[in-house]
Amino acid sequence: MVSAVLGTEEQDQQPGELEPVQRKSTAAIVADQLRAAIMYGSLPPGSQLGEAELAARLGVSRGPLREAMQRLVAEGLLRSEPHRGLFVMDLDTEDVADIYLARLAVERAACEQIVRHHRVEAVAELTAAQSRMVAAAGKGDGIELADADQEFHETLVRVSGSARLQRMAQTLLVEKRMCLTALQDKYHADVQALVDEHKGLVDAIEAGDEALLLSRLEAHMNDAMERLNGSMAQ
User: Fold this and answer.
1) What is the pLDDT of residue 2?
2) 119, 159: one domain
3) Which residues lie across from 87 on neighbouring strands?
4) What are phi and psi of 83, to 5 degrees?
5) 222: which of 9, 60, 87, 93 lies 20 to 30 Å off by Cα?
6) Final residue of a structural domain among 72, 88, 104
7) Up-side HSE of residue 53: CA atoms within 13 Å toward CB?
8) Contact 195, 137 (CB under 8 A)
9) How many domains does one find in the chain?
């Protein structure tokens, strides 16, 4: 019944027909800004969110701000403490291990879908994303490299065609970036190895070798997790 209804809707819709513009609500826009602030360290781990101050800084009323905060609580980026308020989550070595366990599961599923259904599109988009990593590495810009790395993995999950995998990946990638930002004075990646690892993922997709792709993905995740946890231990 559902497919029949969808099919009818698709047939009724003519090419070039105007459709309602999808606009984000104020709460969604505020949530995006808060995520970015957490990811880049403007709101560091453990910091308390003052509702009045944030509403003033963002130029919004408290209603949409509270809705946005609750979204981030649901995502696990904020924690609520009774009688105290909302705080940005702290992350320890166990959290990092858990983040990468979940990331591997999500990106593994994305890779399986890509090799089986979306190889051509994935190779084109991921090659472009990996090229931006090369450019950032050449400039020695750590923040730009981290942005390009994040874009690569966002693209990897998006090209899988699964909206649910994308939603799960979003929070995990923000948490990973939180760790990198908090440890920026201690975390030192092998830049060339990082660039090469991502090129290896693209090459495996292009070859259509699912076993090789999944093996390289797991090695890449384990290496990143060990470097982060090593930095936290310092």
Assistant:
1) 40
2) yes
3) 48, 79
4) 65, 5
5) 87
6) 88
7) 4
8) yes
9) 2
Which residues are CB-contacts of 231 (< 8 A; sequence separation ≥ 6)?
183, 186, 187, 188
Q: Is residue 118 part of a domain?
A: yes
141 and 227 within one domain: yes
Three-state secondary structure call for residue 24:
coil
Q: What is the pLDDT of residue 10?
A: 42
26's tokens? 């104020």
Segment 131-150, tens digit of pLDDT? 999 999 999 888 899 999 99
Question: pLDDT (tens digit, 9 = 90+) per residue, 33-88?
Answer: 999 999 988 999 999 999 999 999 999 999 999 999 999 999 999 999 998 999 99
Flag whether 178 is in a domain: yes
Q: Which domain holds residue 126?
A: 93-233
DSSP 43: S
Total residue length of the chain: 234
Contact 110, 155 (CB under 8 A): no
3-class DSSP assignment, residue 79:
strand
